[in-house]
Amino acid sequence: MSFELDGQVGVEVDVKDLTRPKAKVDDLEDSHIIPRLIHKCCLAKKNGTPFTVAGTGRPLRQFVHSYDLAKMFIWQLREYNDVEPIIFSVGEDEDVSIRYVAEQIVAAVGFTGEVRFDTSKSDGQFRKPAPNEKLLRLVRETSKDKEEFKFTPFERGLKETVDWFVKNYDNARIGQVKRGQVGTA
């Protein structure tokens, strides 16, 4: 993602997957993994159908909460004067499996039905690591109190996102669910 502010400052950002309360959830096949799984799990609960996740659930991903991303954008605009891109991501040691994401969503939604992993679907790339050492070092160096940037814990960010979606389901961008899509990969 790249953009300019008033034609003066060019900002280039590499953003990893986001967890955010108002994520795109209207496409059960092509939306980002977390909003898609939240929506599918809610539909499975509502319709009494199995919650099906595409693939084995083994691939690992790094997720950044949207509020953390907003804080990083503000820091970058105020403090980062380099022309080299910087990666906005949690640490490589904070990646989680898709299976773990699905389990956390099941718990947050309160889904008690069957959870299936459709192994006929591709897992995609096993891991997509993005190092954040440069970001953390620069934030610490420019911080008045030299503190580390603290990312929102994955479980808390995901729970907040699920809670927002459930509370705002009728007004969320959920689009039209096609026949046969409910609870399937």
Task: Explain how this protein is built.
The chain is α/β, with parallel strands linked by helices and 185 residues long. It has 5 helices and 9 strands; from the N terminus they run βββαβββαββαβαα. The chain has helices spanning 33-47, 66-79, 98-109, 133-142, 154-167; strands at residues 2-5, 9-15, 17-19, 51-54, 60-61, 63-65, 86-88, 96-97, 115-118. The strands form 4 sheets. It has a 3-stranded mixed sheet, covered by helices on one side. Helix 1 (33-47) packs across helix 3, helix 1 crosses helix 5 and helix 3 packs across helix 5. The longest helix is centred in the N-terminal third of the chain and has 15 residues, at 33-47. The protein is elongated, with a radius of gyration of 18 Å. Residues 1-26 and 179-185 have low confidence and may be disordered.
Question: What labels describe this entry?
Answer:
185 residues, alpha/beta, two-stranded parallel ribbon, 5 helices, 9 strands, 17% strand, disordered N terminus, disordered C terminus
